[in-house]
Amino acid sequence: MIDLLSNPAAWAALATLIVMEVVLGIDNLIFISVLTNKLPEAQRSRVRRIGIAGALVLRLALLSLITVIVQLTDPLFEAFGHGFSVRDLILIAGGLFLVWKATREIHETMDPDVDHAGGVADKGTRAAGAVIVQILLLDMVFSIDSILTAIGMTDFVPVMFVAVIVAVAVMLFAADPLGDFIARNPTVVMLALGFLLLIGTTLMADGFGFHVPKGYIYAAMAFSAFVEMLNIFARRRREKRGAEAPA
């Protein structure tokens, strides 16, 4: 451990991994915010914290099984000219779930008074346990992806542990402000669901061997969020001018 503290390469790897883990955590936070905002307001913060704590436990557990995780990239079978590994199957399943969930939430958002297979009529009393289970399922997918990325960037396992803990702490700090912001701005909800569709499609493409650089994905998301922020500011200015105008 002392050698790591005096090793510049370890510090550089730590800084890089923290940034990477925080960026990858955006996917997780958006999903958690969308799901928990369907719950009664009194339950949202607690469920978010449980979901993020589950992400921390999963990632630390996966790091402790690093030799097993590395083997998840070994091909199990070949189809369509691509060797599918356990990691690929997990990414495909996670991507399908994310696309299905985002599509269903879009339908519910567009038709809030319609009972989509019982999913909307009881949304005010939706069990927090069901939401937590869904969060943990996606936590598993995102955790495996982020851990495998971390393994490819450094051989210092203690650095990986520290980076994961710091990144999850940032997620914990940002969860409530992000969730509340999405809840206060209905147009942002649709944007967030669009992000989830994009992320789910990217996960499936990665699972089938078509790697899309994450930089492109996050650049597109950042640009879309920037445009939406301009729309929000413009809308608030119009509302303010309307309120100040004489009757």
Q: Please provide the ordered H/E string of secondary-structure elements.
A: HHHHEEHHHHH
Averaged pLDDT, please?
78
C-alpha end-to-end distance: 70 Å
Work out the count of structural domains: 1
What does this structure look like?
The chain has nine helices and two strands. By secondary structure, the protein is mostly helical. Strands 1-2 form a two-stranded antiparallel sheet. It is globular. About 4% of the residues have low confidence.
How is the topology of this model organized?
Elements: H1 2-5, H2 8-36, H3 41-64, H4 66-71, E1 75-79, E2 82-85, H5 86-110, H6 128-153, H7 157-184, H8 186-207, H9 214-244
Keywords:
247 residues, mainly alpha, two-stranded antiparallel ribbon, 2 strands, 79% helix
Describe the structure concisely.
The chain is built from nine helices and two strands. It is mainly alpha-helical.
